[in-house]
Specification:
Rossmann fold; alpha/beta; 34% helix; 15% strand; 10 helices
């Protein structure tokens, strides 16, 4: 701390004279994407692990708040012990051109987690979320096409652009090797959460603590939730904004979008060496 600057005030309600254990550290792992892929589930599931401390909110440092500096970013982080890993998630990083370079400049050893989902389903989910906040927006079909009869998809619409995973990945591979990027299947996260979380724990280099015993399937929401743990009184399920019923879309529109995404999907599978079976 620079000379003369007073120490930060303790948080409200903390006992005077008692230092909280741990140190605020820059994250060693970041969930960088993608929006509506299942990033919140990954964060909530991984923070059950005793060796992980995660920031609950999205700091948007590497896209919107970079001008505030690394010390501001560090100040947001939870305190960790030497044996713990700090994790944050901001899904918009994956589609932010400057994010890979900025994260690399923070630490070239940062581990990156990308949660991907069938881009057609992801786009519909994205639209459904926006519609719940802005009911007056145009139809999904109207936003998707520049010219539907010619099958011209509007790639400037964010909901479409995000799903072009192979395009965005190129920016990341300029700075990080594939071995430092872990891809999570948003579909398998629902059908086999323990399996996907097992792979994430392996990637982070921590013991497989989160297993089948941590999950139950919530039929109402249509996805897995964390079972009640000894330390809490209630089972932990994601908020009401998760698991919304999707807007019904014309099957022909869906087929046109599948055709549009197919070459991007194939390139993505080939690049990461993993077939997500979105066809």
């Amino acid at each position: 701390r620079p000379c003369g600057r007073p120490p930060p005030a303790p948080p409200a309600g903390s006992a005077p004279g008692l230092a909280r254990p741990g140190t605020k550290r820059l994250p060693r792992a970041i969930v960088v994407g993608v929006k509506k892929g299942g990033t919140r589930a990954v964060l909530e599931f991984i923070r059950v692990h005793p060796e992980v401390r995660a920031l609950g909110t999205e700091p948007h440092f590497f896209d919107r708040n970079y001008h505030r500096g690394l010390e501001w970013y560090r100040s947001l982080m939870p305190r960790t012990l030497d044996s713990q890993i700090t994790v944050e998630k901001t899904p918009s990083y994956f589609v932010t051109k400057e994010a890979p370079r900025r994260i690399f400049n923070m630490s070239r050893d940062t581990k990156l987690i990308v949660v991907v989902r069938n881009p057609v389903t992801r786009a519909i989910s994205d639209y459904t979320q926006t519609l719940s906040k802005k009911p007056d927006i145009p139809t999904f079909e109207g936003l998707t096409f520049r010219n539907r009869s010619l099958g011209l998809v509007d790639t400037s619409w964010n909901a479409i652009r995000i799903g072009m995973y192979a395009v965005h990945l190129e920016s990341w591979l300029q700075y990080f090797p594939l071995s430092q990027i872990h891809f999570v299947s948003g579909e398998k996260l629902i059908t086999d959460p323990a399996g996907e979380m097992g792979k994430i724990q392996d990637f982070l280099g921590i013991k497989r603590v989160i297993t089948d015993k941590h999950f139950y399937f919530n039929k109402t929401k249509g996805f897995p939730c964390l079972k009640k743990l000894e330390s809490s009184s209630l089972p932990r399920c994601l908020g009401k904004s998760k698991g919304r019923t999707h807007v019904q879309i014309d099957p022909e529109v869906i087929e046109q979008l599948r055709d549009f995404y197919r070459p991007y999907n194939i390139k993505f599978y080939e690049t990461v060496g993993q077939d997500f079976r979105w066809e």
